[in-house]
Structure formats: C-alpha cells, structure tokens
Design brief:
The chain is α+β, with helices and mostly antiparallel strands and about 300 residues long. A six-stranded antiparallel β-sheet has the order 8-9-11-10-12-13. Strands 4, 5, 6 and 7 form a four-stranded antiparallel β-sheet that branches. Strands 1-2-3 form a three-stranded antiparallel β-sheet. Helix 7 runs antiparallel to helix 8.
C-alpha cells in the first residue's frame, strides 16, 4: 500500500483490533508537529470527565515506516491496538491528577533546539537561551516508568491563566524540586556493570581531566535543563576545579568534561554531531553545539558548533 491507502485503512479498521469494551470510543485524526515536521497522528477519543479527557496518540507516519519494512499490516495494527489500550488505562489513571487548578505547582522547564522547532515555537510560550529555547511542560504524573507530561501551548497557557513570565517563574521554582539533578562520573556507571575488579580499579584511578560526567535528573526527563541552573554548574566546576565543556547528549541529559589544552571544542562538536546522527532519536536531539562554562564569569557560552559566534 502507498501511504494514503495505509492511512485510510488504519482509520477504517483500527477499532476492529481493540475488541470488546471500546464500542463507545472512536478514532480521531490528530495532525501534529514533531521537531517542526508535520505528522499524521490518530487518537482514541476517550469519554470526557467533567469536560476533560486524556487522549493517547499514535503516529501513522512511524507505523507506515515499520509496515514498509515488514509488510505486516495486521501485526502493526495488533501492536498499535495494545499500545492504545495501555494508553487508555493510563490516561484514565492520570485524569484525576490533571486538575488545572493544581498545574502551576507542576510546571517544569524543557530545552529544545530553536532552529529545528520554528513552527512549534509559534504555538507555545517560550524564551530564547543560547541556540536553544525554553518551553514548558505540565508534569502530570511521576512514576517508576518516568514522567507523564503535557507541553504547554498557547491554548493551555490561556486555560491556566499563565503568561510566559508566570510559566518561567513557576518552572524556576518547580523544576529543581520535582526533577532534582543527578551528577555522576560515567565511568562509575560503567563500573557498576563490570565484574572484573582490575578493570574497575583502572576506571577509579583515571585522572579527573580524562573523566566524563553525566548530568541529568532522577527521572532522566528534560535533564538538559540543568544548563539553566548556573549555581549547579558552578558547584560542578568547583568540585572538578576547572571550567567546563558541556556536550548536549539529548534533551534528557548533558555530558560534562573539564577544560584542558588537549581538548578541541570543534573536535568535540564533531563528536556530538556524529552521536546525534547515529545514536540519538531525532525527537530527543538537542543541539550539535558544545557549550563552555566559565568559572570566572559564571556564564555559559557556545564554544563550538553551527551557531558559535566570537565573543
């Protein structure tokens, strides 16, 4: 099938794969944007509670890509139906927590790439930060599976009666409390997975200037927001006794290195670009830039990358 035929067949046949108990539900097409690209999504319309509902959404474009590889339409639909059922159950559990009157205490930061999200940024409250933009998410639920959240667009901000300044101030108070930062030597993380004691000892003896550190938060959710906390960067810089190079591993975490004469920021930017292309899902990529934190000025700059400018 070509894409249009696939999309029509999904909309027409999907309810047949859900089984009993879903007779009152219906499929609703929901176009949306993902990193500035238009996507075709569809949701299962849930019965509203007090005029509200939480809609699980699946991406038809991604389903079609998998179908092209396998040719198995039925298998793709069975998997999608199970995901949707799980979403319905999870959405019903989240609905009581999605009380608009309690949202202000759960607004958190998220950093995204400015250049690659131009269309999205027209629809959400935001502010610029280096080559990135700060957007806001309503963290509805926290669990061992992670964080269930909603991106705050202009419509939701209006419902919450919060302008961009209100959202920023709320996120400033909430993010560190709800998503406490985690700073760890990546080699210690590797050591936890090792069984050979000699290899562990070699990692432990490695000089600090050769070490690589991961900064995220306890949920590994929107962890790159640590870039917004100068005092945390200063604490890390003080502990390591150095200025810092910061590599954006994804929207969820950053990597930190000490600054030394043998580390070329342009070479580091090439490494970031290669990792983004090969190892990071497109929706999780943050930037190809390398950032520099100056302990003396207590400021962060772009050290290398497409948007690097001379200071």
């Amino acid at each position: 099938m070509d894409y249009e035929s696939f999309k029509k067949k999904v909309s027409r046949d999907f309810m047949c794969y859900l089984g009993e108990g879903f007779e009152k539900y219906e499929v609703k097409e929901v176009p949306y944007e993902k990193r500035g690209k238009k996507c075709d999504g569809f949701s299962l319309m849930l019965p509203a509670v007090n005029g509200r509902s939480i809609l699980p959404t699946l991406c038809i474009n991604e389903m079609y890509d998998r179908y092209k590889r396998t040719g198995d339409f039925e298998g793709e639909m069975i998997k999608a139906a199970q995901v949707m059922k799980n979403g319905v159950t999870y959405g019903a559990r989240l609905l009581p927590a999605s009380d608009y009157t309690k949202a202000e205490g759960r607004i958190v930061y998220q950093l995204i790439n400015t250049a690659e999200n131009g269309s999205l940024l027209e629809e959400v409250p935001h502010r610029k930060f280096l080559d990135l933009s700060i957007v806001y998410r309503w963290a509805v639920d926290f669990s061992s599976d992670g964080v269930a959240s909603v991106l705050v667009n202009n419509d939701l901000a209006s419902i919450l009666d919060m302008d961009e300044e209100d959202l920023y101030n709320a996120a400033f108070k909430n993010t560190r409390k709800l998503l406490p930062p985690v700073f760890r030597d990546i080699r210690e993380m590797l050591g936890d997975m090792m069984t050979d004691e000699e290899e562990k000892a070699m990692l432990e003896d490695m000089p600090v200037e050769q070490k690589l550190y991961v900064v995220t938060n306890r949920y590994n959710f929107a962890g790159a927001s640590v870039l917004l906390y100068e005092d945390i960067l200063n604490d890390i810089s003080t502990e390591l006794g150095s200025d810092l190079y910061i590599l954006p591993a994804s929207i969820n975490e950053v990597l930190v290195l000490t600054v030394s004469h043998d580390k070329d920021p342009d070479a580091l930017a090439n490494i970031v670009n290669e990792i983004n292309e090969c190892d990071v899902d497109e929706s999780d990529r943050l930037s190809n830039s390398v950032y520099f934190y100056s302990a003396s000025s207590r400021k962060i700059y772009i050290a290398a990358g497409e948007y690097c400018t001379a200071e």
